[in-house]
Amino acid sequence: MPADPHPHADCFTVPYPAWAANATIYEVNLRNYTPEGTFRAFEEHLPRLARMGVVIVWLMPIHPIGEVGRKGSLGSPYAVRDYYGVNPEFGTLEDLKHLVQTAHDLGLKVILDWVANHTSRDNALITQHPDWYQHDATGELVPPVADWTDVVAFDYASRELRQYMTDALCYWVREADIDGYRCDVAGLVPTDFWDEARPALDALKPVFMLAEWDELYPSGGLTWEEFNSDTRLLERAFNMTFGLRLHYLLDHIAEGKAELADIDTYLAAEREKYPPGVYLMHFTSNHDVNSWDGTEYERLGPLALPFAVLTALLPGMPMLYSGQEAALNKRLEFFERDTINWQDFPLQDFYTRLLQLKKRHPALRNGDPDSRFQRLNGPAGLYGFVREKNGSAVIVLINATAESLELPGQKTAVNPQKGLFDVFSGEQLTLAQTKARTVPAHGYRVLRTRD
């Protein structure tokens, strides 16, 4: 049966491109991806990513970087000096176009990281349009966050700024044929700007818009009650926001500060706030987390791979960061060149099995209100669930303890005698077998029905 209508479903009118339904997103740190650090060098990896099951390739900012107040020797990619330029560190506009066309030929989509909230301190807009920026009582430019000393904040009271930014967003869709944007600190920009800009982009082609924000995660002085009534970013402008609350919850579980059962509370809060067609992005690492909080191995320890399975197969869109398929166990330098050591891609097969399952299985499609989620009962250290649609199901079991655990027999959406295929071992089993329900210490099982 279809899910019950959400009481506020009519508020959510943002269009979704059809190709987002089975998508996984992959974040590309161009500077550190290859020894060359260029578009052309990265482009050679696109066939590998397509084989992994990636659909959306997210490029970190590709614009020239400010020099005034620059951090480190190369600066932050998020200190944009020219919204219409290409960072020569990466190559040329023609190189970017070639990358996008190659991606499209492989069935991939490309989104650019966009910094609409602030610019570098030497962006020409500061002298051309000083009224577009925020100033303090003494007339000095204001950084959006105190220690973001290399950037200064826009003032979106200016209609001219709004038109400029909309035009710049449209330029890259027209000129490079990109497929959307990941928008940096999107919640710091007035939502009505995004609501106005989205139709202009969709008039060019169906785009996918990702907001770096999480309306489920309290910040900015909002109370939980205020936050839980606020769904504005995903109503008319954005297709997806970050699942920050789940990210931090998984960190806390690994630290022993939370329980696996708290995931249920998170999922219930998400579904209470959003209708079934709305989904968030889940991950165990990204550029900020890796560089500032630590690698998934530092933060999650032996639960790094089990939680990668969770973030890939829970409702929502999974995201993979550059180097995770290489078991990257290093904090990448953010303001310097720090090339990833790919080590012959030791986790390539692990992520390929997950992402291809996500891409192809009907029960795992993003935002599908007809896909059922059933939590399985078991010991406290075991988290299990079934996702099922039209008799086709995926069973996921995660063991967060240092000893082997078994899922008890119980009534599920899957007939216990029905044939199952173990996604990682390749074994053919049934749920009636104890072997199929036993999960090793700090391990995982992913079973799909043999349809």
Describe this structure in words.
The protein has helices at 30-33, 39-43, 46-52, 93-105, 125-128, 159-176, 191-202, 224-228, 233-236, 244-255, 262-273, 287-293, 296-300, 304-313, 348-360, 434-437, and strands at 25-28, 56-59, 109-114, 118-120, 151-153, 180-183, 208-211, 240-241, 281-282, 317-321, 372-376, 382-389, 392-399, 405-406, 419-422, 428-430, 438-439, 444-449. By secondary structure, the protein is an alpha/beta fold. Helix 6 runs parallel beside helix 7 (191-202).
Structure summarized in a few sentences:
The protein has 451 residues and is α/β, with parallel strands linked by helices. It has helices spanning 30-33, 39-43, 46-52, 93-105, 125-128, 159-176, 191-202, 224-228, 233-236, 244-255, 262-273, 287-293, 296-300, 304-313, 348-360, 434-437, and strands at 25-28, 56-59, 109-114, 118-120, 151-153, 180-183, 208-211, 240-241, 281-282, 317-321, 372-376, 382-389, 392-399, 405-406, 419-422, 428-430, 438-439, 444-449. The protein contains 16 helices and 18 strands.
Count of the domains: 2
Which superfamily, in CATH terms, is the homologous superfamily of the largest domain?
Glycosidases
Strand order of the largest sheet: 8-7-6-3-2-1-10-9
Strands, count? 18
Q: What is the mean predicted local confidence, pLDDT?
A: 94
The proportion of strand residues reads 15-25%
What coarse outline follows from CA principal-axis ratios? globular
**What's the architecture of the largest domain in CATH terms?**
Alpha-Beta Barrel
Q: Helical content, roughly? A: 25-40%
Low-confidence residue ranges = 219-229
Provide the gyration radius in Å.
22 Å
Query: Within the CATH hierarchy, at the fold level, what is the topology of the largest domain?
Result: TIM Barrel
